[in-house]
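Box S2. Input/output pair 1.
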Amino acid sequence: MSVLHTIYFSAKGTTKTCAAYIGQHLGLETRTYDWLRCPCSDTLEISGKDVLLLAMPVYGGYIPHICTEMMGYLRGEQTPAILAAVYGNRHYDNALLQMKDILIRQGFVVIAAGAFLAQHSIFPSVAAQRPDEKDRAVMAEFAATCKDLLAGRDEEGWDEITLPGTAGYDASFFRGVPFRPGGDRTCISCGACAAICPCHAIDPANPRETDQNLCMSCGACIAACPAGARNYHGAAYKAAGLVFSQKCAAYRTPELFYAGKKEEK
């Protein structure tokens, strides 16, 4: 029986939620890789008889740079891959295409991809409570179609999937947002934020401060803080949040892509 290798990077838990829900409905024995808590630092070979489910958050239209580096350790044998890009209601831009391009170079065949909605990691009033019941129904349908595609792997194989994006994109274009989370006076100096930070931007000896040059604004420290002491602050952040929430207020729906076809729900 095939093994499903589920890989995700999930700073605030929503990408993990999407990956788990899709994986659950694929109905395969699963091995899970949490790249936030256990970063990949060595070659990971996935047999062509197995399946890869790769779920990544979208930052500025691309997947996090540390994740592109870790994807370089993946090795496939024409292994079927299913992609999930999780974004906060602005747009996923080149993220799915970027994931596909990297995996093809690493020996994988992308058979399906989905762009799913989740609460925005920096401005949480945007897409609040996503993924919601409608999102979960689409994810279940997505998994069911993927099962059908996998069932026909020996008889038919797959055509190359077509995904939206800009040819010749520059993934280094996005330099991050100008906002970094920090601690306030309620900080208890427990060090949980420093321990979880994937960029080592928080000094355990001074956890209220954040290294502005290292932080990528993923929000993992906010989610990990037991005292609720870490967040984004300042007038500029509040003003940007008002503008962003107005621009991204419309209810967006997931977009699904399969080898040879696209569906919107």
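Box S3. Input/output pair 2.
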Amino acid sequence: MILILASASPRRREILEEHGQSPVVIPSNIEESLPEGRVFSPEETAMYLAEQKAEAVAEELKRGVFGAALRAAAGRAAESAEGAGNFLVLAVDTIVYKDRIIGKPRDEEDALNILRSLKNAAHDVISGVCLIELAQNLGPCRPRFKMCGKQVFFDSTTVTFGDYTDGEILAYIRANPPYDKSGSYAIQSNWGSHVISADGSIFNVIGLPWERIEPFL
């Protein structure tokens, strides 16, 4: 089976590779928005966005959209593994929640205000996960696919920060631009020294709840 990571996040790819996986990266380019007229909890928000990402990439595969990396992976799998015609699409959406959903900072001032709001308090890091398995049927013209299964779930970690100054925040975000990170920080960076406790998966805080995903691989 070929694992497709529907994300451009280097951190998610690195977690998978650290655990012996070799994902093919096909980022989903969907607009991350929620449908109007519905109220979502933070957990539902993360799961909905992850499902939208996975479904978008799965539809590309169904249409036979294959890049060079995927063709090469399929060729290697065909030589060495059973189920080489199957794909497992993995999409993850991670949000930070403290009184509201906290997204990626717009600019330095926004990052400063976000990290100010998180000090001396606990917040939740929630990852929605969607896994879609596709089976390949070789037809006369091009591969056809059917969905074998779909799993959607979430994982949550409660992180508590201690005290820090505005000067420490500014020094951190200027040395480590946080504009691609929900909550404006990376726990695996030196900002992790401000963590008093983390109740749950650290991998989840980094961006991919490995302990929950591993059984499906």
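Caption for Box S3: The helical segments are 10-18, 42-62, 68-80, 108-118, 166-175, 202-206, 210-213. The first helix runs from residue 10 to 18.
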